[in-house]
Write a structure and sequence with these properties.
Radius of gyration: 21 Å
Strand order of the largest sheet: 11-10-12-13-14-15
Shape: globular
Oligomer: single chain
Distance between the termini: 44 Å
Strand content: 15-25%
Largest sheet: 6 strands, mixed
Number of helices: 11
């Protein structure tokens, strides 16, 4: 088997359904499998999976064992030569895995050197997510992030390492750290490294795994030729519990991989506290009031309680008025995910938000901002 796609879910039932639907389409031409592992969700995630996707392997944990352990459990069941660690609040294009695996096979001559491969991530509004590619967060690199110096001197090698700004977002190349929302690697390498470190509950696990791949002499790659939507804000609420876990995670990484000292520990405690404060403050629940909701579909569809609605058979029929706020809704049965992702990238604007409509399940889903909770409109409940 070529590929095993591992999706760890916790209480994001609607995003999980959208994600699995996109992955199903993306593996149609591959010898691949999907493994869902649920960390004891209190919503109806597992019931949905059994009803909508009965043939997909589902592992139901009896407790929330955290991101590292949950993924490790799933990988033990995987059969693919390669694995993809994928967040449930993501949407992949139909050719995402084919392109990534082709890139991997093109490096067959240096296979022993290959570490982890990530890709270009955008949020639900079409904005590039800089964490798609990062540098090792040494104390200095972390300081440039916390202080904002990386923004002031994006071309300086002294300040631009946190988000690997030596590499353009549209340029494929080597990077140090990749994000756990999308990671592709050989299953053998994952097992050699012992998988994610289960001593780290969350937030530093992807940094740690990427760094351990480098320690084994591997090269990690940012692959820019495919784009994945990562709604991001849905999977993490920036509350006090988040701040506590984030501080613990940063301290865990530094204590594990760098020499301990009183000054170093003090700097990292202060730094991780400030950084987690910044993260928390970014969760602003941006309020967007659409003046017009536009439904893109190939057939005329009527949705009640969403007014006014315009129906279009082609994306280019819409003439954007900069004075009007638009909510654009895409019927996923009418268009490919690749078409939708490409349009979102090209049409992104401050006065436009994007959603997806799943007619089989009768809900609309999306996000207005990377730091916000997702928006779900269950049409069955409002008809």
């Amino acid at each position: 088997m070529q590929l095993s796609v591992i999706i760890l879910n916790y209480n994001v039932r609607y995003f999980l359904e959208l994600c699995v639907l996109s992955v199903q389409k993306a593996i149609q031409n591959l010898d691949a499998e999907i493994i869902i592992i649920d960390n004891n969700s209190s919503d109806d995630s597992c019931a949905m999976m059994k009803q909508r996707f009965p043939d997909i392997k589902l592992i139901e944990n009896k407790e929330n064992s955290g991101f590292p352990k949950g993924n490790n459990i799933a990988v033990k069941k995987a059969k693919g030569e390669y694995i993809c660690i994928l967040n449930p609040d993501t949407v992949v294009a139909e050719d995402t895995f084919e392109k990534v695996l082709k890139f991997v096979s093109s490096r067959a001559h240096s296979r022993d050197d290959l570490g982890i491969v990530g890709c270009k991530l955008i949020d639900g509004a079409g904005n590039f997510l800089p964490e798609s590619k990062r540098g090792i967060p040494t104390p200095w690199v972390a300081f440039t992030k916390i202080s904002g110096l990386y923004k002031l001197f994006p071309k300086s090698s002294l300040f631009n390492k946190y988000y690997a700004q030596h590499l353009d977002k549209n340029q494929t190349g080597k990077v140090d750290i990749l994000v756990g929302a999308f990671m592709v690697m050989q299953r053998e390498l994952y097992n050699e490294m012992g998988g994610f470190d289960e001593n780290c509950f969350m937030y530093a696990d992807d940094i740690d795994l990427s760094y351990r791949a480098l320690q084994k002499g591997k090269s990690n790659y940012y692959f820019a030729e495919t784009t994945v939507i990562h709604y991001k804000g849905e999977s993490t609420i920036r509350d006090q519990k988040y701040m506590k876990h984030f501080q613990e995670a940063m301290q865990f990484f530094y204590k594990k991989h760098f020499r301990k000292s009183i000054i170093f520990d003090w700097m990292m405690q202060i730094g991780s506290f400030i950084f987690s404060k910044i993260k928390k403050n970014q969760q602003h629940n941006y309020i967007f009031y659409p003046h017009e909701t536009v439904l893109f579909t190939k057939e005329l569809l009527t949705i009640q309680n969403l007014s006014p609605i315009c129906n279009h058979s082609k994306f280019d029929m819409l003439k954007i008025n900069p004075a009007i706020n638009y909510q654009l809704v895409f019927d996923v049965q009418s268009f490919s995910f690749q078409e939708i992702i490409n349009f979102v990238k090209q049409a992104k604007s401050k006065n436009i938000t994007f959603k997806m409509f799943l007619p089989e399940s009768n809900f609309i889903i999306g996000s207005n901002h990377a730091n916000d909770k997702g928006i779900i409109i269950n049409l069955a409940k409002i008809e």
